[in-house]
Amino acid sequence: MTTRTTHTARATADAAEAADTALLRLDAATVRFGARTALDAVDLDVAEHEIVSVLGPSGSGKSTLLRAVAGLTALDDGRVLLGGADQRDVPAHRRGVGLMFQDHQLFPQRDVGGNVGFGPRMHKAPREQRQRRVAELLDLVGLPDAQTRAVATLSGGEQQRVALARALAPEPRLLMLDEPLGQLDRSLRERLVVELRQLFGRLGTTVLAVTHDQGEAFALADRVVLMREGRIAQSGTPLEVWQHPADEFVARFLGFDAIADAVVAGGTAVTDWGRLPVPAGTPDGPCRLLVRPTGVLLSAEGALRCEVIARTFRGGHVAVRLRPERGPLLEAECALRAAPREGATVGVDFDPEDVVVLPG
Amino acid sequence: MSALRAAYDRGTRTPRGTGAAAGGVRRAGVRAALMALPLLFFAAFFAYPVGAIVTRGLHQGGSWQFGRIADVAGDAGIRHVLWFTCWQAAASTGLTLLVALPGAYAFARLDFPGRRLLRAVVTVPFVLPTVVAGSAFLALLGRDGFTDSLFGVRLDTSVWAILIAHVFFNYAVVVRTVGGLWAQLDPAQEEAARMLGASRFAAWRRVTLPALGPSVAAAALMVFLFTFTSFGVIQVLGGPMYSTLEVEIYRQTAEVFDLPTAAVLTLLQFAAVAAILALHGWTVRRRESALRLVDPALTAHRPRGAAERTLLGAVLAVVGVLILLPLGVLVARSFDTPSGYGLAFYRALGSTDGGTFSVAPWQTVGNSLRFAAIATVIALAVGGLAAAALVRRAGRLVRGFDALLMLPLGTSAVTVGFGFLIALDKPPLDLRDSWLLVPLAQALVGTPFVVRVMLPVLRAVDERLREAAAVLGASPWRVWREVELPLVSRAVAIAAGFAFAVSLGEFGATVFIARPDDPTLPVAVARLLGRAGALNYGQAMALSTVLMVVCAASLLVLESLRTTGSGEL
């Protein structure tokens, strides 16, 4: 089995080629619920072995996207293609995709083995092969002795593992996860997301996962797709999206709120905060400007005077919220010991590396 | 999900792509296919016979005689019957609520030894044939009855006998409908109110009562419906003084042979029942509002304090006097032969010497069991398909179908029985001499119970569980077999038990269509009661006891299955 990085490199470096060999392709896929458009002419390609995270606020259409691909919700327009074949008249149970539900939906009347073996049984796998597969998968998700346990006796994390094993058992060509870690507590989530990524890498599974948690999406995926009101707002590697949010919506969704109007002229931008350096090659003219917290440098002699209004401890650093003398609120990142106290007045300088001009 | 369903409901009006339209059409097709058999069944064995008898009554001399409606409605005797029907139903309902609501609380919230057994026992009257209940009260309150010999009080020709019998009958309806919900209400809600400063009573009145309101209303309407159409009880206990619409329909049809009057009365009853059912449907839908429900096993507690112990004592006393005593007296009378206590009446059941029947009364047990078993199979098939169609809940059309299924519960069984006789005796449906008539009529009464029991359970199956199975490769048929059926198998068993017990006790329609040489148990009891002589009376008591034991046994089996879910009845 080849490693994840080679696949990723191939899949994302040559997007055009990947599109030709796309395992999943959405072509202007549209779903309407009455007057509301849940999915608005969405185009999306997922290459074989790729892990794609769909990220967005609730109601942005991410779950509808999964349901449309699974065949649980019919398209009003456009097409879903799997391996190049139009899935219009293919019912859910013949699409050969796996879906792991948000709240797992394990069958309460079957034990763990019965749940995991359900898919292979539906695909008429012989008994011995089925048993082997169940044992193999339970081993894989770290529950080797759980075969005969009742579903009701499982903890949240164990249920999640069984649901994953069940979804993987029929060897779906595409595995879809709907908020896979949604109901688990934070530390378990952080551990599992790493495990999941390693597991999918080892198996070479193609994955389309939906989540509202950016940390989860960025940790899991090769590529992140951000959705807004039924459309794709941005698609790219986690690093690309993080460094270059496509627009103000994406920036704000990622938690960046220090955004101001600006006019760029000759390498500097004029804003309410004063003159800010911008990255080389930024075109002149009016635009919206984002300053990332890492680009807000506190110093005694900084030109812009700010009042410290709040401090939040974030593990290794402190997030400091600042009210500048003019312009929108800013956020800065400080080392634990260097953080100014609330109510203090500090000066601020800007690092051009973390000043981002938002397109549009 | 609701948005999705709404979209399907609007499917034909909203402009949609071909893919979605095809899915919608397919779903509508499946639903139509599921509804086909129940609709056909109801058309052939309900609408057609009832329509035929109404037509026979009102369509005479080549024209419709609508003038008869005014004539009948203007008749003083009929007006008296109407008045009595309404007020005895209202009084019975009020009395039942008064007596049964504390019982609902005790069975829902108090934990005491023998609770499960007692809950099963109080349900016995509900599935008991009305004739048997009537004879139990006759034994209790009638000539030489329990109260007569003890206190010299006879109530069998007074309206009190009727009212008390109705409470006896419908106690379980209130305990099950209201108590079922009460047991599942989260006590934390009341606790929250009390933490906000409400007294115990205020918390109950402001939090619990509003939550229970719709289910109390639904139970009250159900009791009103059952007592409004009461037949067997009035027939046995009412004497010549008291007559309900249903009894009057029977009298006009079978004794006076005045079909036009019977037809008008049938229509009247039909209208009243339809109104009650519409009201019932409305309250049941309101009951589906979001309530916090918890496992009933967690809400019950041992009685605490003098007040709760007094309440429990009172409830147990009421159950003892109102339910156990009549049943006990019935059993006692069946052994109380002229020559001391013994099995003489039971022995007499085995012979044809009485001359009442051409067969030994004992054989009617076999008849009844056989008919009820067949009726149960029919009711399960028809009701199961109907429930499967209804679970994919949708627009007004389906709601109408839902109400239609309930209609046989309230329609005059006498009309149905007589309608069977006059409508199903010529091709294409010539069943005049077929033994199948009886189970068909009984299935008609059993089907609403099957639907009521199955529907809430089917609706409770998470749609995404079905989807999870589909995504794992299960075809719709496999989804039904592998996921849905195991989850509802308990409900199927309960529905079957209800249908069986109700079929076993069906009297109003069966009395018309059972062949003289092949009577069912309740019909035999009624015939025995209608004849003079201690032997006949004793045999009626013995036969009633047998019927009661069979009903109670099937019910106790049900109770052991019934661990969760309140059902709608």
TrEMBL record, chain A:
E.C. number(s) listed in UniProt: 7.6.2.9
A cellular component annotation (GO) from this entry: ATP-binding cassette (ABC) transporter complex
Keywords, in A-Z order: ATP-binding, Nucleotide-binding, Transport
Pfam family for this entry, one: ABC_tran
Residue stretches spanning the membrane: none
Domain ABC transporter: 24-254
Keyword Acyltransferase: no
Protein name: ABC-type quaternary amine transporter
Organism, as annotated: Actinacidiphila cocklensis
Automatic annotation (TrEMBL), chain B:
Region (Disordered): 1-22
Keywords: Cell inner membrane, Cell membrane, Membrane, Transmembrane, Transmembrane helix, Transport
Localization in the cell: Cell inner membrane; Cell membrane
Any Gene Ontology biological process: transmembrane transport
Transmembrane segments: 32-54, 89-108, 120-140, 160-185, 216-242, 262-282, 311-332, 371-391, 403-424, 436-455, 491-514, 534-558
Domain ABC transmembrane type-1 as annotated: residue spans: 82-278, 365-558
Pfam families referenced in this protein's UniProt entry, alphabetically: BPD_transp_1
Name the UniProt record assigns to this protein: Thiamine transport system permease protein
Provenance organism: Actinacidiphila cocklensis
